[in-house]
Structures are given as C-alpha cells and as structure tokens.
Fold:
Amino acid sequence: DAGITQSPRYKITETGRQVTLMCHQTWSHSYMFWYRQDLGHGLRLIYYSAAADITDKGEVPDGYVVSRSKTENFPLTLESATRSQTSVYFCASSESGNGGTDTQYFGPGTRLTVL
Amino acid sequence: QKEVEQNSGPLSVPEGAIASLNCTYSDRGSQSFFWYRQYSGKSPELIMSIYSNGDKEDGRFTAQLNKASQYVSLLIRDSQPSDSATYLCAVRQTGANNLFFGTGTRLTVIP
Structure:
C-alpha cells in the first residue's frame, strides 16, 4: 500500500549511542520533513529536504543529522543520543513546499526513549 | 510570541453540538493554513486546508480564514464522540517551505 512508513515504531536506547530512524515514502514527493513532538511544545521541525541531496535545518536541529540520497528515503540520525531526545518522531512528506500541493502527510511515528 | 497559538483546552461539547476551534498566527504574510486531527498515540491526519479568506466547507467541517485579523478557525457541526481528539493548526509562513504548528486543542465530545 502506497504511503509513508517509519521504522522502528518503538526504540529504547542508552545515552551516548547512535540511533537512526528511517522514513520511506512511495508517493515520489519532493519534500520530506522530520518533526519531534513533545508535551507542551507541539510539533517542532528538526530538518527538512526539498529534494535528493538538499537538506536544511529546522527549529531544533542540534544533535541530529540527516541525509537524502534517494527521493523516497529520509533517515534521521541521533549521533550521540541524550535523554532530552526522548520524544515521538514524525516523518512527513509533501508534493511541494508551497501553493496548493504543500499539504504534508505524516508517517505513523517512532517513539524513542533514551535511558 | 509563538508563531501559531491555540487554546490548549480541553474543550468539551455535547454530542450533536458545534465545536469551534481557534488559531492565531503571527506572520501576516502567511499563505497556507491547515487543520490536522490527532488521536491519542496516532499521527496527525489532515482535516482541512485553506488558502483564501472566507469559509471552506467539507462535510461537517468548515474552515474559516481571516488574514486581516490573522486567525483561522475550524467548526465541527453535529459533533460526534469519534471527533474527540487533539486538533492541530498549522501555518506556512512567507517564503518558508515548512509548517509551523500550534500546540493543539484537545476536544472531547460527550455522548
């Protein structure tokens, strides 16, 4: 079934470990986004990508790395996980970044716990 | 001042009533506006998008945009218990490719 998927859905890791969250979409959308959702803060943008090999920082990029070698994949890496990175992470995609096709569609989310 | 502000609620309405959700935004040049619904433990799903001043209706949902006053609202008519969720307002600011989200309003529809 076409759509946007994330893996893993749940992850528990320890402080200092590297963690990679995967995001895959089958719509050939140009734009992809990573958000984190925390109580009291809502959804905050970490990084986004306008196309393969084009990425840009969002509101809260520190401690995260992204890459986009293929249009359909947009992995998010926590290089050295900290407890403050415990959160629910959502990937999203949109056909464009503006105009009538800028609706973002969200993946199911990854719940990450850093001990 | 946050870019997008919503009353966090909770907002409780009886079944069959009209639920009114409001959102204000700070960037006067914002161009795209969205309402997402998020059930507990689930991902946000799009309810409505609106780009022009006025009302846009889709079934029981009506989005209202007033750019002069910098607010966007969502009306849910004939509210159902299944409408109980958190509603997120999102805005795309001038020149931005990403959305800014409010913290959401939690709606409870009482049977």
Notes: The longest strand of chain B covers residues 85-92. DSSP finds no helices and eleven strands in chain B. The radius of gyration of chain B is 13 Å.
